[in-house]
Amino acid sequence: MTLLGDAIRQHARQIPDRIAIDGGAAGRLNWAELALALDAEIACAAKLAGPVAIELDQGLPLCLRDLALLESGIPALTIPAFFTTSQRDHSLEAARAAALPAGTAKISFTSGSTGTPKGICLSSDHVISVARAVVDHVGDSHAERHLPLLPPGILLENIAGFYATIFAGGTYVALPQAAVGLAEPFRPDFVAMARTIAAERINSLILVPEYLAGLVTVMERTGLDLPALTLVAVGGARPAPVLLERAARLGLPVRQGYGMTECASVIALEAADESTRGSVGTSIGVNRIALAADGEILVEGPLCLGSPPGPFATGDIGRIDDAGRLWIEGRKSNLIVTAHGRNVSPEWVEAALVAQPGITQAMVHGDGQTALSALLVPAGPDADIESALAAANADLPAYAHVIHWRSVPPFTPGNGLLTGNGRLRRDAIALLHLKESKEMKFLERLQAETLDAQIAFSAVPQLQAGLAGSIDRATYIAYLTQAYHHVRHTVPVLTEARARLAHRPEMAAALDSYIVEESGHEDWILDDIAAAGGDRAAAAASAPLAATKAMVDHAYRVVRSGNPVALFGMVYVLEGTSVAIAESGAAAVKAALGLPDAAFSYLTSHGALDQEHMRYFADLMARIHDPDDQQAIIAMARDIFRLFGAMFAAIPMETIDAAA
Questions:
Q1: Domain locations in the chain?
Q2: For residue 584, what pLDDT is reported?
Q3: Spans of the chain below 70 pLDDT
Q4: What is the residue-wise DSSP string for 348-406?
């Protein structure tokens, strides 16, 4: 029995009726019930041979399985949902093939800058000591109701959130990601997140700076107050001072932290009564912190299993003030040296950029250049980037001003450009966006020049409600009906385009492939309507909404009287969108409505198919060199983002409003 298990049983005796885990609609367990359920889960775990992989959303099953494996001494490997298939396969294979160090309780795979996850083995004593130290450092009064927002599988939330809440005797509000505004694949729904925090009377959170910035912006714009919060721990990257000031004005009790997976997450955490903001505080008591001659942060004390003896070089640059507080300056390997010989930490400049409401994400570059440049992700389709950039530069010295910038699509764990705890995967971003060649690849240009249209599309309320599962059956059937009315034209419009491009073998062959793959998909949709309780024949006989007809008519018009190559702009939107939303949307709606798998064959199958299609599409776009073809594809993609969004917006909102 571990100290964590002892704490559960102690709470079961002393506060048996207090809620331990609140899974929302999935149910709750008080401390007495948790102790009994854990015993049953341990009995089941005894039949397993480690290591055991866990791939579950936040909720009661994940909490119980995690605790049971820890108590049983069986190594557990939690696979984050954002891992790519190759990252997942690598993690599983490495865990199976490796000779794990004795005492391994957790295997944490982190997606580093190369994209290949690195496995870290931790003992139960180590992770439990960190969780206990977190509670000792901050006190147990903050753990009344803790809401996990970081993705399942992130060690920081697992230890400093879940385990610390158990030690403190609080309530872990383990709601599915879709229920807290994190089902949206393009970007988090911060409005839904803020509403959930308020409705669930949450007292403590662990956030990355991006989440803090989104939450602050929602509170500023809506006037929402969150007085129940007593602790908002922020880690993963350094938030800008101006963001901390905005949070303070709203009364958010933000405290910065610092940690490493090798140290079982938290190393240092800011105290509650700090008069000077910006440090990550002092050690929580598990590790000792020192600095090398060049300012690199060194950590001594418990480390991951198999680590060599001696101080652990973190790769981070920092300073320690007279009060013993640690200040993070940046990453040692990321340091930019300008053509003028000035050393600039990109994290410092990036923090100033994302602190502006108009900028969601930023990556600064410019090593060896006379001025800094940045890749910027706008906060919305109407974001005034120039004004945001000017405001950020006003807070920076001249040598750190960002002079050149370009809008890019969001960096996410799903596209391999962001780690699960919010760190930029700089090598991957540079590989995609910062080629040595000054000519941008066409697919990159297509992504960049349609970014504002994509953001506007993703903001359509009906789409967001569907992704969150907050729609009723009638609305889902209404969506399927409109999907039927545009999908039944897919093969005919592809066929017309193929006829007009018969003289271009490469284009014709691509369209032949799409025609074969897309044939019969409209029948899948009618089958889904029937399985969802709708009228298959009535849907097929109905007239499309005007917005749906407008999208279809536009496709025919462009193919018949314009450049038929433009149709690939429609392919980019429809298939790229389905990759992003199909499986997430299907899972959310299925969970909310309790419909059978047979009601989601179009969404789930289409999502899987289009992942392959998009790889093929990327190869095809690499061979589009004619400027007229490129411009036609970009224009069509912008039009279809707008028209497809209008189709979603035309679906009646009454039931969506009621569900939300």
A1: 1-180, 273-330, 335-412, 448-659
A2: 59
A3: 82-87, 97, 110-118, 184-187, 339-341, 414, 435-440, 576-585, 605-615, 653-660
A4: HHHHHHHTSTTEEEEEEE-TTSSSEEEEEEESSTT--HHHHHHHHHHTS-GGG-EEEEE
Which residues, in sequence order, are CB contacts of 548 under 8 Å at separation 6+?
A: 482, 485, 486, 647, 650
Q: Does residue 278 come out as left (phi exceeding 0), alpha (psi in the -120 to 50 range) or beta?
A: left
State the amino acid at position 278 in one-letter form: G
Q: What is the pLDDT of residue 612?
A: 53
Judge: domain 1-180, CATH 3.40.190.170.
no
- Which residues fall within 8 angstroms of residue 251, CB to CB, at 6 or more apart? 225, 226, 227
| Residue-level pLDDT at 525 | 94
pTM, to two decimals:
0.64
Q: What are the pLDDT digits (tens) for 101-130?
A: 999 999 987 644 334 556 889 999 999 999
Alpha helices in 200-311 (DSSP H): 209-222, 241-249
Whether 1-180 shares its CATH topology with 335-412 is answered: no
Give the number of other Cβ atoms within 10 Å of residue 647's Cβ.
26
Selection from 639, 602, 650, 584 nearest residue 454 by Cα = 639
Contact 230/172 with Cβ under 8 angstroms?
A: no
Give the per-residue pLDDT at 597.
85
Residue 163 gets which letter from DSSP? I
| Residue 201 DSSP one-character state | T
Taking residue 227's Cβ as centre, other Cβ atoms within 10 Å add up to 8
In terms of Cα–Cα distance, which of 327, 316, 179, 306 is closest to 241? 327
Strand order in the sheet with 402-407: 359-365, 372-378, 402-407
- Class of domain 448-659 (CATH, top level): mainly alpha
The pLDDT assigned to 436 comes to 42
Cβ(335)–Cβ(345) below 8 Å: yes
Indicate the pairing of strand 52-54 with strand 296-300. unpaired
What pLDDT score does 412 carry?
80
CA–CA separation, 170 and 155 (whole Å): 19
- In this predicted model, what pLDDT tens digit does every residue of 160-178 receive, in sequence order? 999 999 999 999 999 999 8
Report the run of H or E that residue 234 belongs to, with start and end. strand 231-234
Q: What does each C-alpha distance from 109 to 49, 85, 89, 117, 429 come to in angstroms?
A: 20, 14, 12, 5, 20
Residue 440, pLDDT score: 55
Distance (Å, whole) CA 78 – CA 23: 19
Helix (H, G, I), strand (E, B) or coil at 122: strand
CA 161 to chain centre: 18
Asked if 613 and 425 touch (Cβ cutoff 8 Å), the reply is no
- CA gap 500, 514 in Å, rounded: 15
Distance CA 51, CA 537 (A): 51
pLDDT per residue as tens digits for the range 334-381: 888 776 567 788 988 998 999 998 999 999 998 877 789 999 999 877
319 φ, ψ (degrees, to nearest 5): -145, 155
- Domain 335-412 in CATH 3.30.300.30? The answer is yes
CA dist 139 and 190 (Å) reads 28
Q: What DSSP state is assigned to residue 543?
A: P
Distance (Å, whole) CA 645 – CA 636: 14
- pLDDT for 256 equals 94
Cα separation, 213 vs 239, in Å, equals 9
